[in-house]
Amino acid sequence: MDSIKEVKKARKGNAAAFERLIIEHQVMMYRVAKTILPKDEDCADAIQETILKAYEKLPTLREPAYFKTWLMRILMNESYQILRQRKKIVVLEEWGEQSSDDVGYEKIEIMELLETLPEEQCQLLKLFYIEGFSIEDLASIYKVPENTIKTRLRRAREKMRTIMTKEKEEKTTWKNGKTK
User: Do residues 84 and 109 both lie within one domain?
Assistant: First the structure.
């Protein structure tokens, strides 16, 4: 499917073309929302709001080639909005609940490590390494130059490496029975 032609059709009011574009990007939308929001219901809400806003604002999109990054930026904004609203609410049933996802220990450790980073660095690493966004796409989403994205990725990797080294040293110290 030629996305640029579909975007042009959708901008002219072709709802079927817009629907095809959304279907083409639905998996990516879920993955991006999931990197920000822990619950599937919140992801669905963010995606639904994104689709509505994108449909309403599609005529304002200047360059059809940037539809994907434009759509993902809307999704990220909606996801952060939901996250801000959810941070104010604490549900008692979920407070002590453990995750029952059947994932490997390595994946859990990596996700926990990512969560120790500042939010922007965590998000950037997830989008680049897990979701496969290019540096060019990330620069468009964050509205910064590509070199800024490269620098932020390097700093995030360095910070993660520092945290991993520190944890490894602490485990070694603990195993050897030494205390600090």
Answer: no
> Against a cut of 0.70, is the pTM above it?
no
Secondary structure (DSSP) of 48-117: HHHHHHHHHHGGG-S-GGGHHHHHHHHHHHHHHHHHHHHHT---HHHHSPPP-----HHHHHHHHHHHHS
3-state helix, strand, coil split of the chain in percent (to 5) is 80, 0, 20
Rounded CA gap, 105 and 42, in Å?
25
Clarify whether residues 85 and 107 are in a common domain.
no
Number of CB atoms found within 10 A of residue 97's CB: 9
Q: Give 69-92 pLDDT, tens digit per residue.
A: 999 999 999 999 998 887 665 444
End-to-end CA distance of the chain: 61
